[in-house]
Backbone:
């Protein structure tokens, strides 16, 4: 089965659940759904801009300087996203704390920039990067949903109009399992999700073998 | 805060790995053997003890007086990359002088550079501290916290090797769950305990 460049990042090559890339900021911000969405949007923006810029700059930069240039490029883009968020979404920026700045050394972003800058076609690079970013955001959203629903009994979105931004789940919001929203819960939920992803992958492989043989 | 308070907070209460969830990628990569976990922990401690005071000086002597605080991320990343190059050069010298020590430590220095422990700890610790000396102590303690977490996790992995683990949980998932249980254990170290111990 051959998938498009974009969809590969969503499931089969999901950066978070299959390759465990970019763990550090991901786990720390996955206690609220709104934080996960904010960080995911930041990752997609930085990833697309960095991959495009690196792909275009690559011919004019000497091979030896490239790692340093990519590092500066990503850090500058993260600073831009950081400043934009401080200006327009100060509350969300406050919640994300240092974990937004930490995107500057994120192994998912740096690794992908390094890898994709060598490719020939720009549009394919962008589709791969968008897929990885979207896959990261989806997996992060999944972890955040599990952690926030079990750990606080709520789903926090963004307030608009008469909607206050927080959905309370009856029953759970009065007696949540607080440990799930602490650091321990992040590791636990990720552990079980990775096990689930591995199991699905093994099952699919077995089915493919059966249909092939 | 007293020095003992800074050390205790950085090692146990705000443990970089188990409270702040930083540096997980190299931690899981090194969890396979106690030796490499120890080497990684020592390398991270060394780099942190050097970068924390340097970052403190950059923040309080350059960026804040010149009103360049918005360049924080970029400046810190560059400074840390520079310090890492120095450490790597020192590592090459070390390889000549003491090959055994270099084998134990040197392999992990590249990992320690890009990972988020160093930048994350600097961003979290440095703004709240009043001198470069305190930053060095705090950086070293944060590194010690990482060392403890990585060695204990590797020891748990070594024990698990002789136990039966369900097929789907083998490898990374069980490591993640072990780390989660460790993090639950570390919840015992909190601010109340800190206040009781050190007034």
Residues:
């Amino acid at each position: 089965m051959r998938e498009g460049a974009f969809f590969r990042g969503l499931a089969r090559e999901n950066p978070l659940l299959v390759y465990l890339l970019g763990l550090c900021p991901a786990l720390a911000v996955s206690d609220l759904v709104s934080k996960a969405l904010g960080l995911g949007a930041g990752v997609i923006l930085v990833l697309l801009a960095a991959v495009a810029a690196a792909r275009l700059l690559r011919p004019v930069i000497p091979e030896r300087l490239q790692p340093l240039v990519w590092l500066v490029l990503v850090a500058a883009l993260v600073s831009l996203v950081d400043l934009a968020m401080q200006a327009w979404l100060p509350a969300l920026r406050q919640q994300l704390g240092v974990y937004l700045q930490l995107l500057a050394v994120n192994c998912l972003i740096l690794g992908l920039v390094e890898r994709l800058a060598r490719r020939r076609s720009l549009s394919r690079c962008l589709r791969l990067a968008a897929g990885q970013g979207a896959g990261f955001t989806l997996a992060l959203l999944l972890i955040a949903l599990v952690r926030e629903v079990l750990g606080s009994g709520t789903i926090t979105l963004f307030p608009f109009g008469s909607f206050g931004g927080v959905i309370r789940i009856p029953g759970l919001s009065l007696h949540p399992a607080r440990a799930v929203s602490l650091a321990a819960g992040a590791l636990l939920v990720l552990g079980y999700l990775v096990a689930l992803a591995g199991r699905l992958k093994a099952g699919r492989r077995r089915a493919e073998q059966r249909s092939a043989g | 805060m007293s020095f003992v308070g800074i050390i205790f907070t950085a090692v146990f209460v705000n443990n970089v790995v188990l409270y702040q969830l930083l540096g997980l990628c190299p931690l899981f990569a090194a969890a396979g053997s106690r030796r490499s976990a120890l080497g990684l922990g020592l390398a991270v401690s060394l780099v942190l003890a050097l970068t924390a005071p340097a970052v403190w000086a950059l923040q309080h002597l350059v960026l804040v007086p010149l009103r360049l605080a918005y360049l924080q991320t970029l400046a810190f990343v560059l400074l840390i990359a520079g310090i890492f190059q120095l450490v790597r050069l020192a590592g090459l010298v070390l390889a000549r002088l003491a090959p055994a020590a270099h084998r134990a430590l040197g392999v992990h220095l590249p990992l320690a550079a890009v990972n988020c422990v160093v930048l994350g700890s600097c961003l979290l610790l440095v703004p709240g501290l009043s001198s470069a000396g305190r930053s060095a102590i705090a950086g070293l303690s944060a590194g010690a916290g990482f060392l403890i977490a990585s060695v204990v996790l590797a020891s748990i992995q070594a024990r698990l090797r002789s136990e039966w683990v369900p097929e789907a949980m083998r490898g990374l998932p069980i490591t993640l769950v072990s780390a989660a249980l460790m993090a639950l254990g570390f919840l015992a170290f909190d601010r109340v305990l800190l206040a009781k111990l050190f007034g």
